[in-house]
Each structure stands twice: as C-alpha cells, then as structure tokens.
Amino acid sequence: MIQSEMHLREDLWEAKEMGPTRDGFGKGVVEAGKADERVVVLSADLEESTRAEWFHTEFPARFIEMGVAEQNMATVAAGMANYGKIPFFTSYAAFSPGRNWEQIRTTIALNNVHAIVCGMHAGVSVGPDGATHQMLEDIALMRAMPNMMVISPCDAEEGRKATIAAAKAGKPVYIRFGREKTPVMTTSETPFEIGKANILYKIQQSDCCIFATGPLVHNALLAARELEKEGISVAVVNVHTIKPLDEETVISCAREAGAVVTVEEHQVNGGLGSAIAELLAKKHPLPIEFIGVQDRFGQSGAPQELIEHYGMGVKNIVEAVKRANGSRN
Amino acid sequence: MEPLTDAEVKSLVERAQAIRATVIEMLVAAGSGHTAGPLGMADIFTALYFHVLNHDPKNPAWPERDRLILSNGHITPVRYAAMAHAGYFPIEECLTLRKFGTRLQGHPERERLPGIETTSGPLGSGLSQASGYAYAARMDSRQFRVYCIMSDGEQQEGNTWEGAMFAGKNRLSNLTAIMDRNNIQIDGMTENVMPLEPLREKYEAFNWHVLEVDGHNIPQFIAACEEAKAIYEKPTIILAHTIPGKGIKEIEFNYKWHGKPPSKEEAQKFLNELRTLGGKISSEHQ
C-alpha cells in the first residue's frame, strides 16, 4: 500500500495528472533563480524543448545562449561556477553529458565546482527521434565520475524539487529529465532530499523489493499493485538519487525482501541496477533482476510502444519480480 | 603606464633565467615531464607574475586578483616555478613536482594548490573556462582581468574555437588570451602535423583583437598586455612567438624535447649554460 508519509497523489493509479519531468526543471530553475541571484542558465540552441526558455523569460540577463556547442557550454559553465555563479547547463542528454564528457570530468568534477548538468530527453521515450537522441548511457557516464551527484526524478514535481535542491548542493550535479509526459505521482508535500531514497509502497512483509528511478517508478507501482492481487507483496522504492546511493535504505529494504528488481530507462550496464548490485553483492548478496535496456540501442517509435518493446513495461516488471522471487534459496 | 626602466628589465630577465634553472631542477628531480614548453614560456610567466598580474602571493584567494587560467596544463612546471619565485610557496617545494602526495601535480589541480585557478591538462578547454569566468565577472561589474595561456597545438581542438566564438560574440574585453606560438607539438612541427596558420586572420575573423609579440622580449610582451586593457569592444589575443626550449641551445626548436625531462648529466650542463648566459659570463657554480 502507498505509504501515507509520502503524500502521493490519490489519483496516481489512473495517472490523471501528466507532465514531462523537463517541465519540473523549467519551473524549478525559475524558483531557484528567484531564491539565489547567482543562478544562471546556459542553453545550447534548445531553450524551448529544455524549458530553459522559462528562465530566459524571467531572467533575461542571466540566460546565456551558447549555440550548438556543448563542449564549450560545459567549460564556460565550469568557468562561471569557478567564479561563483551557479550555472545550470542544458541540452539533450545525448549531447550533454554525451558529447562533452571529458570537459565535465576535468573542468567540473575534478575541479569540484558547483555546476549542474541538465540532460533532457533521456531514455527511449524520446520516441520518434530514434536511437541517436535516446540517451541510455548517461547515468553510467556520470556515475563513474568522482564528486558527481546523479539524480533521476520520477515525475515533473520531483524534477522541480531536484532542480531546487541542486542549486543548493555546492557540488557538481547531474540531473536527467525526460521529454514525454509521464504520470505525476508526487505532490509538493512529498519529501525530497538528495541521497535519500523514498519508500513509496510497502506491505507488512515484502517478498520482493523494486528499486526504480525516473518515470518508470509509475510502472513499478502498477506492477506492485498487480502482484499484490496475486498474493505477492512487493515494496517499491523511488531511488531518485543514484549517487550518492542511499545505502542504508537499499540494504534494509533488500534484506527484508530477500529478492530485488531494479527498474530504469537506461542500459542495464552501469545504471541504477549496477549501482544496487555493486552494493548488495558486497553487503547482502541476493537474487536480483534488472529491468532496463539490455545492451541495445533504441529506435523510432511511440514512447509507450518503445517502453514495452525494450522490456520495461508493467508486465515485464511483474515477470521479473516472479523470477527474482523464484531464484531465492 | 610608464615604460620599464633598464634596471626593471634587467631584473625581469635575470628572474626568468632563475625560473628556467628551477624548471630544469624540477624536471630532473621528477624524472618525467615536459621541458621545451616551460623553458619557452619562462619570460612570459616572469612578466606575468612579476609585473602584469594584480595578485597577492600571500593571499591567493584575494577576490580582486587577476585570474590566470592555464589551458595547456603540461607546461605547469614553469607556472609552479614562477609562483614559487613570486612567494606563493617555498622554492624547495618545486622539487616535489610529480611526486606522491605533492601539491605540484604533473598537471595542475585547482583543489591541490592555492593560486591554481583551474585544473587543466586535457587540451582545448581553457579558453572556454576563461571566457565563462570573464562573462560571469562582467555580469557583476568586477574589475579584475582574466588571462588565459594556451598552446598553439591545442588550436587543433574544436573546443578552442567554440570558446573563441563565444568570447568574440560576447565582446569579452576583460579577457586576454596568450598563445604560446612555438610551432612544435609532440609529433612534430604544427604546420606539418595539422597547419594552424593564418592564426591572426582566424582570430580576427572570430572578432578578436590580435597582437603579435616576440615572446622573449619582456618589455614588448608587457606593452601588449597593457594595450589589451585599452581594447573595449573585443577580447584580445597575444600571439607570442617563442622558441621552445629557449635558453638551452640543445633544446631550442627541437620537438623531441616536448615531452621528456633532461637526465642528471644533461641538467648539469644546461644549468651551467643558463647560469653563464650561454658562456657569456662566468658562474660561481663552476
């Protein structure tokens, strides 16, 4: 059952309220800009689709158009952060951090300056644009980097909160956002703290724990409810911060359940599932199943169609829970 | 600004030689590192740290200091040596270059040594960082200048030109870039590896004010830095023509010295050459 202290929307099952997580960025960065005049936003010729435009309208003097030059955008942001500004730099995740990885590594992460990499249009749910624009390796890229925090909001409201929190982080941050409208599950009352995973759904004694990140948290909840009807009790944890991972919550939930499924719209190599597996292999080895893209590139299609095709639908999660459960000793 | 007196010029020239000697000693002690670039830039680093920059070695985080962004981090020995001579840290610490636990990393890191403005080594990203810095400082009407030292080889990096485009578009007149135009890179002469010329025209086309100087003529370089401050509508780049390995005849213009240090025996010979100004004077160390 939904944990009441999470203050989730009551209509979340019907997904009545829909919105893209990038809208959360657009709103959040305006709020962050109001709260702190050091906040600036950089755009690589994509201000409308990244929602950087909303900040541009509100704070024209603090919006910087970079043109189609993501390597320059990252390094200009590094220089601005080094000076003392709080730059959010925005593009599609395929290009930033996709193309400018080394610049981010050296001039932001190693320099340890407070710049925020905002990667939009992550995942196959970008849809018709196809594989080139469907970033599926960004979590892996950014997670491997010392000093870098990695956040993947589950919905537009959490995207807003993550953006506001990132403005106060004082360290390098990567946030990934999606293009497509996805169900809004959380409310302004839902807790959000970087590095603190949220247990959204839980039954007295769970048989399996699903650790999910990004908009697929909704599919994880739907799967849990379906499994509950079949008599399998499942906990669902929203791991919005992949780094630093909330080790305490992950270990305690995993230990209680005895089997784990990870869910992410990312390659299964190097993402949330890898982070959880690395931790549990060391601290509490148990059966684990990975929902995500299985070492393949995406393709054109409708977002929902692609989610299903690449094995990240509700049905896939239900099956994975059963497999994980069946593998326990 | 008043022209330099003869005594001031002499003092700077001697300082540059002393910094070269420190560089040789550092590289021998380290057993690895780049030789030609640091020696070729000794005059410019001397001019910067002992005349051009508004800075305080005892207070490296002074908010009003001029910022010196070193893009081609591999020539950092000469920066360390100049900083030590200027009083940022004891000259003896220079001998820890590249050793375990040192603040003097093989390529400079901002968080390790106060006074290093940014971490660098991977080429082509310094100009953009300096531009971002200058842009941010101008937003707040700050008065300090941002200097960026680049190599010529890194003009082959696309990121450099993205940065040049950004600085030109935004008329970052508080930015002075300095290019070490020494014509060598690891695989040979720049014009053979991947031609860079015409550099003046390229930067002019990117809306920069371009100056060219003899990078070993300290008064000329200082005058160019002064002129840059008077250019209000554009960033300025000083193309500093230098001789790689300047001061040591055997190293000068020899690209094989780009990325290796001298042996102990070679170092003794080179230090002697520096201290006697190529045999022109006798040395107390002989």
Describe the structure.
The complex is a heterodimer of chains A (329) and B (286). Chain A contains twelve helices and 14 strands. With 329 residues, chain A is an alpha/beta fold. Chain A folds into two domains: 4-14 and 192-327, 3-Layer(aba) Sandwich (Rossmann fold); 18-183, Thiamin diphosphate (ThDP)-binding fold, Pyr/PP domains (Rossmann fold). In chain A, the strands form three sheets. In chain A, strands 3-2-4-5-7-6-12 form a seven-stranded mixed beta sheet, sandwiched between helices. Chain A has a five-stranded mixed beta sheet with strand order 9-11-10-13-14, with helices on both faces. A two-stranded antiparallel sheet of chain A has the order 1-8. The longest helix of chain A has 15 residues, at 21-35. Chain A is globular. The model of chain A has no long low-confidence stretch (mean pLDDT 97). Chain B is an alpha/beta fold and 286 residues long. Chain B has one domain (6-275): 3-Layer(aba) Sandwich (Rossmann fold), CATH 3.40.50.970. Chain B is 40% helix and 12% strand. Chain B has helices spanning 6-30, 36-40, 42-52, 76-86, 126-139, 158-169, 190-193, 199-205, 218-229, 264-275, and strands at 67-70, 146-151, 175-181, 184-185, 188-189, 209-214, 236-241. In chain B, the strands form two sheets. Chain B has a five-stranded parallel beta sheet, sandwiched between helices. Chain B has a two-stranded antiparallel sheet with strand order 4-5. In chain B, helix 1 (6-30) packs across helix 3. The longest helix of chain B has 25 residues, at 6-30.
